[in-house]
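hey so u asked for the seq, here:
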Amino acid sequence: MPRTRRLRSTGWVRVVRAPEAPEPVRLTGVPVAPVARAVADAVSGLSAAAEVRALLTEAVRGGHCEPSAIVRELSRARLLSRPHVVDAVDALLTEGRARSEERLYALVREFGLPDPLWNVDLRLPGGPHLGGVDAYWPDQAVAVELDTRAPRQDDDALWSEHARKREHLERLGITVVHLTPRKLREAVEQQATVVRTALMAAPDRHPAAYVVVLPR
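ran it, structure tokens below
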């Protein structure tokens, strides 16, 4: 409810006053707050890390929203300064990344792609560290990187670092395929086609620079 409305909570209905209302979505014709916003509003009234963690996990495991959307709303509501919320978010992001990796493994297996080297670091021989990737096909010089970042205060700096790494790899002739958890969940066949196309296009590209591959 807008802060100017004089409505009170009653029964199981709790009024949450906010400076601006979210853009509603409709469920069975009823306008409701988006899941990420509803979760953030509920978290604002919780003080136990276990309760916050359970709420966040249910929203993500149930496929109702992405971890990044929840973190964005928690940041907007200035809840990331609370230690118990930060702990729950860190646990959520760790689990979210693990689930994304499982989907990537399944994509390679179910769509008959050649097995890559999983979770490796790339380096120039005797030179600097180029960065880690989630999957790498050395014969085709194709890398897959999962973007499981969540928006934080330092997101711009982190994004710049990711962009620099990608540009550096591509200058060396390595094709970087960028996948997000949402794409892996909602458009897995399309993402498999993207990876397969990158692998098939390898013979038409200039040979990539030789890099050292190390376990991460």
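The chain has a mean pLDDT of 87. Residues 83-110 form the longest helix (28 residues).
lmk if thats what u needed
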